[in-house]
Write a structure and sequence with these properties.
With 300 residues, this protein is α/β, with parallel strands linked by helices. The protein has helices spanning 2-31, 79-82, 99-103, 112-119, 166-173, 192-209, 235-252, 284-296; strands at residues 106-110, 136-137, 153-155, 163-165, 177-181, 214-218, 255-257. It has a domain at 99-296: 3-Layer(aba) Sandwich (Rossmann fold), CATH 3.40.50.1110. Strand 3 (153-155) and strand 4 (163-165) form a beta hairpin.
Length: 300
């Protein structure tokens, strides 16, 4: 009997194992029937930007540029649209001839390249009043380096009167227009940052002491091919400095006058018939050309 009982238990366990194996096989077969369908994969939602409003979602596919942005990231705006020329009105463009009356309203602050404007007025009808003119602000020495702007003094109230600082002269005279011609000495040693910093300081001194003055940042004049100091002062440096002056004019809300353009020959040198013999300073004909340019590129 005991052997029969053991045989019965063995049979029951065997049957149970077979049934379990069959159930497992059936489950596997049924689960494989859906493999041909795509099963969506659940992913966590994209983090909401701190700037998004509650209930609003940001679509990562929305690449519409904001107003004023370029549709192509990394593509710069057209330099002509934002630079110092087109669209900004920084460079004084051609106008009708404003006449001698306009020239008589201009005051000229500058270095030795401006001093001649006073000197040659005795030879040519450049400025009203000729040598008695108070329109030219330069030191009696005729030299005014840009890097000395803070301490430099100019003859201003009368030709033989006490010299004043630029700030004092502007506060006293309140010029209607001020044409600034500075920097030719500076190009020999000043880098862009230094040059622009000091030029900006000069413009700001004028603004602070004579707020209603219209400021014209005048280009530095070219030098001639036979100038003796081309190693330190040359047209390559002058052209670069004129671009810096143009940038200062744009940044300070003033105007830039490209008078140097009428003084150059076909190769960019100061014309021989416009220089006084040292190939740096203008003669009466050169100043006449500058004044004519200013008359026909007036700040109105």
């Amino acid at each position: 009997m005991k052997r029969n009982a053991q045989s019965s238990v063995f049979f029951v366990w065997t049957a149970a194992i077979v049934i379990c194996l069959f159930a497992v096989l059936l489950t596997l077969l049924l689960s494989s029937c859906g493999r041909g369908e795509e099963i969506p994969v659940s992913t966590p939602p994209a983090p909401v930007s701190e700037s998004a409003q509650p209930g609003e979602s940001e679509s990562p596919e929305d690449n519409t540029p904001a107003p004023g942005e370029s549709e192509n990231p990394g593509e710069a705006e057209n330099p002509g649209e934002t630079g110092t020329e087109q669209g900004s009105g920084v460079i004084l463009g051609e106008t009708a001839d404003a006449g001698q009356g306009y020239i008589d309203r201009l005051t000229f602050l500058g270095d030795s390249t401006t001093y001649g404007l006073w000197y040659y007025s005795n030879e040519a009808p450049l400025l009203t009043g000729e040598l008695e003119s108070q329109q030219v602000w330069t030191p009696d020495s005729g030299t005014l380096a840009l890097f000395n702007y803070a301490t430099a003094t100019v003859e201003c109230p009368t030709p033989n009167g006490p010299e004043l600082t630029i700030a004092q002269a502007c506060a006293l005279k309140q010029p209607e227009y001020l044409v600034i011609t500075l920097g030719v000495n500076g190009v020999a040693m000043m880098d862009e940052e230094w040059f622009k910093e000091d030029y900006t300081a000069v413009v700001n001194i004028v603004k602070e002491n004579s707020p209603n003055t219209r400021i014209i940042c005048n280009s530095i004049y070219p030098v001639g091919r036979n100038y003796s100091e081309l190693a330190s002062i040359n047209n390559e440096k002058i052209n670069a400095a004129n671009e810096w002056i143009k940038q200062v004019a744009a940044e300070t809300g003033t105007k830039y006058s490209d008078t140097c353009s009428v003084l150059k020959d076909s190769e960019g040198w100061l014309r021989d018939d416009y220089q006084n013999g040292d190939y740096l300073h203008l003669n009466a004909a050169g100043f006449t050309a500058v004044l004519q340019y200013l008359r026909t590129h007036a700040y109105l």
